[in-house]
């Protein structure tokens, strides 16, 4: 099973600033990585797939990068609606499909 | 636009069977390009994939749950279902259903991300 590890657990950022979230895989997942956003009381929403491709309707301030075992989600200028929990998920070696434990982006 | 909606009891007694249904609207669960999945999230915790199935019967289950899980589909009602038996308090979670796309990658097919998701339903295991 591939273990996904996200850091930090919590990221405190001021509105308008950049947020950088990390996700590490226990072995290579190539570019088979997705990112999700989850707001309180809501289901997760797909943001990024293929490590760097934005899903339909996702604003350009969200960008993904990385390959193999190291990945980054960057939010270039945080808006109020971006404060949420973010998860990464690998789909290179399955089953199981596995998620990271999440990074909470909170208002500083 | 595809929508998914979970339904089922919100309270299940320990040792009994949790049963949930996901109703899909705006698309067919018989599509050859999608699997259909269940994912759960214990209160205040992260996401755990439970299982996925394809319309012609192929199923994958999380090894940690494999002996207790069954996922099936009903093409006549455009629904798929989750059964988890011998539940304990550790199975208390919000259960989500989601579409799980099949994508061609070179010479093979990959089952990829989850999109979209249902709104989720909280199932509490308690006597």
Mean pLDDT of chain B: 96
Please give the share of residues in helix of chain A: under 10%
Question: What structural class should be given to the helix and strand makeup of chain A?
Answer: mainly beta
In terms of structural class, how would the helical and strand content of chain B be classed? mainly beta
Spans of chain A of at least 5 consecutive residues whose pLDDT stays below 50 are none
Task: Indicate the overall shape of chain A.
Answer: globular
Rg over CA atoms of chain A? 13 Å
Q: Biggest interface in this structure?
A: A-B, 24 and 22 residues
How many beta-strand elements of chain A? 11
User: What's the multimeric state?
Assistant: heterodimer
Q: Tell me the overall shape of chain B.
A: globular
Series of secondary-structure elements of chain B, N-terminal to C-terminal: EEEEEEEEEEE
Percentage of residues in DSSP E strands of chain B: over 45%
Largest sheet: number of strands, sense, barrel closure of chain B:
7 strands, mixed
CA-CA gap between termini of chain A: 36 Å
Please indicate the percent range of residues of chain A in DSSP E strands (runs of 2 or more): over 45%
Mean pLDDT of chain A: 97
Q: Span between N and C termini of chain B? A: 39 Å
- The low-confidence parts of chain B are none
In brief:
With 108 residues, chain A is mainly β. Helices cover 0% and strands 49% of the residues of chain A. Chain A contains no helices and 11 strands.
Fold and architecture overview:
The complex is a heterodimer of chains A (108) and B (127). Chain A is mostly beta strands and 108 residues long. Chain A is 0% helix and 49% strand. Chain A is built from no helices and eleven strands. In chain A, the strands form two sheets. In chain A, strands 2, 4, 5, 6, 9, 10 and 11 form a seven-stranded mixed beta sheet that branches. A four-stranded antiparallel beta sheet of chain A has the order 1-3-8-7, with no helix packed on it. The mean pLDDT of chain A is 97. In chain B, the strands form two sheets. In chain B, strands 2, 4, 5, 6, 9, 10 and 11 form a seven-stranded mixed beta sheet that branches. In chain B, strands 1-3-8-7 form a four-stranded antiparallel beta sheet, with no helix packed on it. The mean pLDDT of chain B is 96. The A-B interface holds A 1, 32, 34, 36, 42-46, 49, 55, 87, 89, 91-92, 94-102 and B 46-49, 52, 60-64, 96, 110-120.
């Amino acid at each position: 099973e591939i273990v996904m590890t996200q850091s930090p657990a919590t990221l405190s950022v001021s509105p308008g600033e950049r947020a950088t979230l990390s996700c590490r895989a226990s072995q290579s997942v190539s570019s088979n990585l997705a990112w999700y956003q989850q707001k309180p009381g809501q289901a997760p929403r797909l943001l990024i797939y293929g490590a760097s491709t934005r899903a339909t309707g996702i604003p350009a301030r969200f960008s993904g990068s990385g390959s193999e075992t190291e990945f980054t989600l960057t939010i270039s200028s945080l808006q109020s609606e971006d404060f949420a929990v973010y998860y990464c998920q690998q789909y290179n070696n399955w089953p199981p499909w596995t998620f990271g434990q999440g990074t909470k982006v909170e208002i500083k | 636009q595809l929508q998914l909606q979970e339904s089922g009891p919100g309270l299940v007694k320990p040792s009994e069977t949790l049963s949930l249904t996901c109703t899909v609207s705006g698309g067919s669960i018989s599509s050859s390009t999608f699997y259909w999945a269940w994912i759960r999230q214990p209160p205040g915790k992260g996401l755990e994939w439970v299982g996925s199935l394809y319309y012609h019967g192929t199923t994958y289950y999380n090894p940690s749950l494999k002996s207790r899980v069954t996922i099936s589909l009903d093409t006549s009602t455009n629904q798929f279902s989750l059964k988890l038996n011998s539940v304990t308090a550790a199975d208390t979670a919000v259960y989500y259903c989601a579409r799980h796309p099949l994508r061609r990658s070179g010479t093979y097919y990959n089952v990829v991300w989850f999109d979209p998701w249902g709104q989720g339903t909280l199932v509490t295991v308690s006597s």
